[in-house]
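Batch manifest line 403
LIGAND: pyridoxal-5'-phosphate
JOB: complex structure
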Amino acid sequence: MDKSVKRLYSKATASMKHSFIRQILKVTKTIPGIISFAGGLPSPDSFPKEQLASLFSRVILNEGDDSLQYGTSDGDKTLKKAIKLFEEVPFLGNDEIMITVGSTNGIYYFTRTLIDPGDIIICEVPAFPGSVAAMEACGAKLVGVAMDRQGMIPTLLRSTLKTLLSKKQPVKFIYVIPEFQNPTGKTMGLARRRAIIRIAEEFNIPILEDQPYRELRYHGKRIITMWEIARTEFNDPKLVTIAKSFSKILGPGLRLGFSSGPPDILIPMIKWAQKVTVSPDCATQRVAARFIQEGHLTQHIQRIIDLYRPRRDAMLKALETYMPDYVSWTQPKGGMFVWVTINKPINTDTLLERALKRKVAFIPGSKFYPEGREQCNEFRLNFSYASEEQIFDGIQRISRLLA
Ligand SMILES: Cc1ncc(COP(=O)(O)O)c(C=O)c1O
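JOB STATUS: finished
ARTIFACT:
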């Protein structure tokens, strides 16, 4: 771009980086026959194309006066009603839920509501870079807390908060992905969720709970969300705001999600939405509402689970079959990702360069750590996009590179 224009960039624009994951996705698209475990892409086989095509046509023809008109910034009331029934929270006030343009949009508004440049957000490490980028765009400083098998470690969260607050550092919120975390696939058990909320209550710091994968559970029982625990056990809805998404259960191209939290947080988030998107896409919102109301979503989620469960099983089996004994990995009960650790000083950024030559891709672990704190012996594998056959083939290719 013309230098004279760059000269005018705001500080935030000038410091903004391209997303590595987007770049690698672009690269993988140019390599014919590549097996990609890189993106967090749902399988196109999971998109309910015919049902959506017929609903879009019906919504435009029968409800077009409404759905082609400007909508409200907090979202379509019909969709809110459908979500409340689907989520089994019919008692929720309309001012406690807002529809967003994907969950990233909700995460951004939440951050925009609470963060001034230099303020601190506590997050898990490794962390999901999409949210980190949205938060950094608001000027936030991310402070990572290490995870064990169950996610963020409570004792470390407490000591981190104690240290920061004793130095009068402006800690604004705690960001967690408690279920099938991106990138590790780890899930917080009930006791861990309660422990994290207890600390949030003790230090009076709210939690943002990011839950895009909750419905994609392949094994074990559903666990109550932190948002619900805060309402029902702690009797304090202010403690947790939840961001959810239709990206993984309907299609990311629809750009639809929702946030639910206390009105004191949601009202300013909606004020931000008025300035940024005006409203989410009204026709898409109504289509999603009808999809849920006509009972398609429950059936559709089951179809996705039936599609992804064998892929997860294939990936775990392929890792077991082909990986050398100095490699270990997580056992996700849902979601889309497995996190692999090479217990040897092997740099996965370099490994990726070699893997691309063998037509297989993953995301190196370093991309999920704050700058300067990168761990280089790990990588993330996605199992929702490739077929079972490709999964076996791709994992064998990576294991050969390691050998
Ligand atoms: C943990 C997490 N949060 C948020 C998102 C963003 O989802 P959306 O498409 O709803 O913006 C993703 C997408 O991959 C994700 O993995």
